[in-house]
Amino acid sequence: MSKKAVVLVNVGTPDSTKVSDVAKYLHEFLGDGRVIDLPWLSRKLLVNFIIVPFRSPKSSKLYKKVWDEKGSPLLYLTENLADKLRQELGETYDVHIGMRYQNPSLEKLIKSNKFQKYSEVIFIPLFPQYASSTTGTVIELIYKSLANRDVIPKINVISQFYDHPEFINCFADNISKFNVNEYDFVIFTYHGLPLSHINRVHPEILESSCNCQNEFPEHGQYCYKACCFETTRLLLKKTGIAPEKSITSFQSRLTNKWLKPFSDEVIIEYAKQGKKRGLIVAPSFTTDCLETIVELGIDYDELFQSHGGEKLDMVPSLNDNDLFVQFLKKLVIGDKVI
Amino acid sequence: MSKKAVVLVNVGTPDSTKVSDVAKYLHEFLGDGRVIDLPWLSRKLLVNFIIVPFRSPKSSKLYKKVWDEKGSPLLYLTENLADKLRQELGETYDVHIGMRYQNPSLEKLIKSNKFQKYSEVIFIPLFPQYASSTTGTVIELIYKSLANRDVIPKINVISQFYDHPEFINCFADNISKFNVNEYDFVIFTYHGLPLSHINRVHPEILESSCNCQNEFPEHGQYCYKACCFETTRLLLKKTGIAPEKSITSFQSRLTNKWLKPFSDEVIIEYAKQGKKRGLIVAPSFTTDCLETIVELGIDYDELFQSHGGEKLDMVPSLNDNDLFVQFLKKLVIGDKVI
Fold first, then answer.
1. Which has the closest alpha carbon to B322: B102, B84, B131?
2. Starting at the edge strand that comes first in sequence, how are the strands of the sheet with A4-13 ordered?
């Protein structure tokens, strides 16, 4: 039997914290039409002449906060995960990693012609919930890089896995390392998205008129918002955390027309209500990175404290946890689960 | 559980035997860069001004031979297959058919936005062996039609199935309906391909220096030639037909630089050797069509007889055989088999 390949795909990181490397990263990331969905020329002008020049020095400072002696956590944590999965899968699988933006480049990996020798290539974008700007852009890159090839190898792209019981188990296990009773509230925070992205998934149903906060709707299959709320419901059920003690919110917004409630506003509100200790969980990230380590772990804690709270603790992401490795192994070798 | 979709994909057929409809079909088919691999402009000139005008009236006559009261066999046989598979799979699957060229159009089906509601769409190009000009062009169309979508649904494309034991079983069963002892020889004929196509699959190994006629090589996974010879070996083993009584050859060539030996030359050679009765099997087609019904079933028989042979019988293709339906059902609902 010939070998199969597994490709763990993550969003990406600058090569270093230097402003020029951060600018390169932002340029590629924000140049993606699925990330900033403006017409091509407007996006190019905005990204090249406004966002990248002004944001790169600021972002570079943020990356310096997240960088440690091993480098960029997003990168080395993904590498560690790949190493462990490689050990688990044994010799019949080759495990690669590929970043959507910058290095090690998913695009270069696909174009290297390596995949032709495998009987199947299984791509796992490490994003639990499908969104056009994460899993969608990865699949677009894969499809476009392979479409014109003489030999288009057999591939399998895992679209999402937010509702897989073993994935839920991984996050519940991480949460269980904290004594939930000691906290006044638990925030399930997900990376935000423009409302226009949500409305494009189900144009027949406006985001604002949908009931997916309360139950998973039939049209919600590829709707990031519906899948985030469902992730929270599944995690509440698994961990036994009382729904009334928890909230689902969205962070990292760029404008007011992004998914609500906004996590920072929720945190301020809780502090104003006199709540003292909070726990924050981020189940749209499987790997800790700038957004979790700095935004959630440092900035939100400071925000909470500056409004009268005592401490906001962050549950780490799955990173290279053994349970997560076992889950990925099952995705790869198990029956079709998605 | 939400529904899954199955799409049976076949090559296509003109809408009718009218010269204008045949021209439309040839125009789309030959306009595909994977079918005629000339630079865009040369192909356009050749196809629009030379091949289509001169070949359409001739092809129209051929299609009149193959058309029957139910219409184009390729179409209604694929529809019958889909009907039977629909019955077998029950309500959790929707079964569609899509033609790569003309109608019912695979491209229109994909672009209709129907697939977003399914948890998975399983495409089965009905070509047992992968080739750039058959399965490759289907996958290219699927990838390109889906790549830019906001929601890219979870898909699974079956790349090839020539070596699946149950597929081999289907063809062996069809062969078993003939008394092989009554025949002087058995030809396993496959649709030909330009040698350049083969060499592009494994540029490091020239088609002419490869030993895949005798054993399956490591680099042969996506090589049409290697997979055709392997199909014959598997069929010989399954049916017990003596290898020395059989030959593997290739039909429908356009130039001399196509896969050899050429089936028509083999047939003439057998007739000249004084052989009287032959059996012909075409395991690169799962559905009977112009190439099997007319080229193999009528023309080759006439050719054989005109050189002194008595009768060349053709084993029908799988069409909507119940065994084939069962095999497809297994591909769809079974464990990952490919």
1. B84
2. A93-102, A4-13, A120-125, A155-157
E-strand stretches of B103-242? 120-125, 155-157, 185-191
- Asked if B159's CB is within 8 angstroms of A152's CB, the reply is yes
CATH of domain B4-161+322-333: 3.40.50.1400
SS3 A219: helix
Report DSSP letters for A77-101, one per residue: HHHHHHHHHHHHHGGGEEEEEEEEE
Pairwise CA distance, residues B301 & B310, whole Å: 9
Contact B153 A120 (CB under 8 A): no
Burial label for A157, CB within 10 Å (0-12, 13-18, 19+), is buried
pLDDT of residue A338: 39
pLDDT at residue A1, as a whole number: 56
Considering only CA atoms, give the Rg of chain A.
Answer: 20
Do residues B133 and B46 lie in contact, with contact meaning Cβ atoms separated by under 8 Å?
Answer: no
CB under 8 Å to B144, separation ≥6 — which residues? A143, A144, A147
- What is the model's pLDDT at position B335? 52
Domain ranges of chain B: 4-161+322-333, 178-314
Q: Are B5 and B115 in contact (CB under 8 A)?
A: yes
Residue B333 sits at the chain A interface (C-beta within 8 Å): no
Report pLDDT for A78. 98
Cβ contacts (< 8 Å) between B218 and chain A: which residues? 2
pLDDT for position A113 = 83
List, for residues B279-327, the tens digit of each pLDDT value: 999 999 999 999 999 999 999 999 999 999 999 999 999 999 999 999 9
Q: Where are the alpha helices (DSSP H) in chain A?
A: 19-30, 40-45, 52-66, 73-89, 106-111, 137-147, 165-176, 195-201, 224-239, 263-272, 300-306, 322-333
Of the partner residues A116, A130, A200, the one whose CB lies closest to the CB of residue B222:
A116
Subunit contact B120:A154, Cβ cutoff 8 A: no
Optimal mutation site among B154, B160, B163, B331, interface A, most CBs of chain A within 10 A? B154
Per-residue pLDDT, B337: 39
User: In angstroms, what separates the C-alpha of B306 from chain A's closest C-alpha?
Assistant: 40
Higher pLDDT, B95 or B48: B95
Mutate to test the interface with B, among A6, A115, A143 (most CBs of B within 10 A): A143
Of A132, A221, A336, the CB nearest to B150: A132
Task: Encode burial over B92-102: b for 16+ CB neighbours within 10 A, e otherwise.
Answer: ebbbbbbbbbb
Q: Is A337 on the interface with B (CB under 8 A)?
A: no
A65 in Cβ contact with A72 (< 8 Å) = no
Mean per-residue pLDDT over chain A, rounded:
95
Contact A147 B140 (CB under 8 A): yes
Fold of A178-314: Rossmann fold (3.40.50)
- Burial-class residue B68 by CB neighbours within 10 Å (0-12, 13-18, 19+): exposed
* Distance from C-alpha of A24 to C-alpha of A35, rounded to nearest angstrom: 16
Identify the sign of the CA torsion A66, A67, A72, A73.
negative
Return the ∠ at Cα B235 (arms to B233 and B237), rounded to 5°: 70
Is the pLDDT at A336 greater than 50? The verdict is: no
Residue type, A205: I
Q: Does A150 touch chain B (CB under 8 A)?
A: yes
- Residues 6 or more apart from B175 whose CB is under 8 A from it? B235, B239, B241, B279, B281, B315
Cβ <8 Å between A150 and B119? no
* ipTM score over 0.90, yes or no: yes
